[in-house]
Amino acid sequence: MEVYHVTEDAETFTCNAYLAVDEQATLVDAGAMDGVVDEIRSHTDDLEAVVLTHQHGDHVAQLETVVESFDPDVYAYADHPARTHPIDDGDTVRIGDEEFDVVFTPGHADDHVSFVSDSTLFSGDVVVHDDGAFDYGSFGRTDMAGQSRGRLIESIRELLERMPDGVEHMYAGHGSVFHGDVRDVVETSLKRAEKREPKYPDE
User: Domains of the chain, with CATH numbers?
Assistant: First the structure.
């Protein structure tokens, strides 16, 4: 599956938004970068679907602009004016040329879901490879109102139970793309989260 990081050159704060162009052109999160539509158009003129990991502003600020430009189907766990298809834990969605299981992974956000196939994990903000706090195996922040470290830990455990052993590509909402032993990264994230120490101790 060919995946492009379409917010990689953003100069303002945004999530990582990913475009899979094989078979069904699909955007995972819309991001908050002005010009994301132009970046998508540099790879495809026919965006068929957008799937959302969650609806924090850095993940959905450009959603309406993307929808106005391409009129894609929009898959989301929580309600949104642009949503055309609700998704829930245990559902499947197509991203590019692969079928992904929807795994409900709250803690960082009440509506957070992750998408996992036999080879690939789109983890949103529940687990990331590196993000400034840790260089290998980090996790979403839980120090703001409505967030829960305990629930996040449960979500990471659930993700490990549902994730096949052969997953080797991880596209997270922040930090860098990772190719390799994704299970080891997620297990490292879980160990760090379980310590319940502040992720950003200076804040």
Answer: 3-194 (3.60.15.10)
Q: In order along the chain (203 residues), what is the average pLDDT of each group of 10 residues?
A: 95 96 95 97 97 98 98 98 98 97 98 98 97 93 92 98 96 97 97 87 61
E-strand ranges in 129-188 read 138-139, 169-172, 178-179
**Length of the chain as a residue count:** 203
Cα–Cα dist 137/147, whole Å:
20
In sequence order, the 6+-apart residues with CB closer than 8 A to the CB of 144 are: none
Using the Cα atoms of residue 165, residue 166, residue 172 and residue 178 in order, give the sign of their dihedral.
positive
- Rounded CA-CA distance 53/26 in Å is 13
Sheet holding 49-51, edge to edge: 3-5, 18-20, 26-28, 49-51, 73-76, 85-86
* Pairwise CA distance, residues 161 & 117, whole Å: 13
Q: Which two tokens stand for residue 3?
A: 């995946």
Report the chain's terminal Cα–Cα distance, integer Å.
39
16 alpha-carbon distance from chain centroid: 8
pTM assigned to the model: 0.96
